Predict the 3D structure of the following.
Amino acid sequence: MLYHLYDLYHASLTPARAGAELLRTTLQNPFVPLSYTLMGRTMAAGAELFERATRKFGRPEFNLPFTTIDGKEVEVIEQDVIEKPFCRLLHFKRGTKRTDPKVLVVAPISGHYATLLRGTVEALLPHHDVYITDWEDARQVPLSAGRFNLDDYVAYLLEFIRYLGPDVHLIAVCQPAVPVFVATCLMNAWKDPKTPASITLMGGPIDPRISKTAVTELAENRPITWFEQNVCADVPFYYPGAHRKVYPGFVQLSGFMSMNLDRHVGSHLKFYQHLIQSDGDGADSHRKFYNEYLAVMDLPAEFYLQTVEIVFQKHLLPKRQMKWKDPATGILHDVDPHDITKTAVLTIEGELDDISADGQTLAAHALTPNLPDHKHAHHLQMNVGHYGIFNGRKWREQIMPRVRNFIRGNDKGVDKVPASDLKLIPDLKATTPWKPGKDKTPKSTAPKAGFGPDSIAAE
C-alpha cells in the first residue's frame, strides 16, 4: 500500500508539474519580454523548483567518454563483462596499452545508483584499469529471478573477484565494506589463488558499535519486525518486479534527507536565488548534484533486513560469529577476520561522517591481527563528511593519491607503470591497528556533516 500511495501522489501532480514546466519554458524564452524582468525570473524559478521537487529522476548515465593519461586524451568505452539478475560488472575500457593495477569499485546498494560514484571512477581512470558493480533496481527484477540477500551479495563478489584474477584490488564505498571484508576473509581462509591483492574500505560499518550515529541508533532501537512492517513494501503490479518485497528507494531517500534537512532546504533556497539572479553556474551545480542524488532505486527486502540484523543489531562480523551461507550449496562457512593474512587493508574515514562515523571502518585493523604490519594503512580525512570521502576536491587531491599509492605498493606490476605515478605521499604509512577499550568502545564526538552541493564544494 505504501508504494501505491507514493505512485498515486506522484501521478496526481502530473498536470501541475506539466503546467509548471510549460511556465518555466515560456518565461525563460529570450523572445518573451517578461523573461528579462525580476517578476519573470522569479516566476520561472518557482516553477522550476516545483517541477524538480515533484519529479521522478531516472537512472543517470556514467558519461565518462574520455580520460587523460600522461597528458593525452584517451577514449573510454563502457563494457558489460558479466550480467546477472541484480548486477552487471561494468568495465571502463581505456584506449591505451598501458599496464595499470586492476581495480574493482564495489558500489553500495543503498538507494542510489552506482553512478553516484562517477567522481570516484573519473579520478581513478588515469591510473587504474577500472571495473564497477552496477546494481539493478530491485523493482525491475522479476520474481522469477529469485531472491537476493547478503549471502548472495557476497557470492556475486566472489564470482567477480575470481573473474578478474589474483591481482585485483577492491575499493568498497560505504555499505559494501562489510561484504567485501567477508569475501576477503573467506578467500584468505580458503587460500584461494585469486584472493584480492588489497582492499580499500571507505566509510563502511565494519563495527558500528564504535561510534553511534542516527543510522546505528535507529537499527539498535527497533526490532527487525519493525523494519519489515514499516519500511518494506511490495512492488506494484505495473513494474517488472511486481510483488517483490523491497525497501523502496524513496523511503531511504527521505531518511537520508531528514538527517540533514536544514542543509537540503538551504541548498534549494540558494538554487532559487541563483535562478533569480541568472547565476547559471550555481544553478547548474545544484542540478548536477541533485539529478544524481534524487535518482533512487529499490533494495531487495531480504538483503536490507539481513544487513540490518547481522551488521547493525547483532554485530556478528566484529564478534567473529558471522557465517556465510553459500547460495549454491547451502553450506555454512565461518567468517573470521583473523584468517586475513595475505590481502592488504587500507581504511579511509571522514572526520565529519555522520553515516559511518570515525572508528567504524578503522576497526578492520584490530580484527586482522595476523596481517603483517606493512599491509595495514589508514587515512582520516579532516573536514569532510560521508560524501566527501569518495567525491569532490579533497577526494581527488588528498584521498585518491593515497589510495593509488597503496594499491601500487601492493601490486605485482608496480614496476610496469611510469615513475611519475609513484610519487609518494609523506604521511601515507602503516598504522598501529586500532584496538577497543577494555570496558567499552569509544564514541565519536564528530559533529554532523552536510550532504549537499554546497558542502561538496567546500570539500
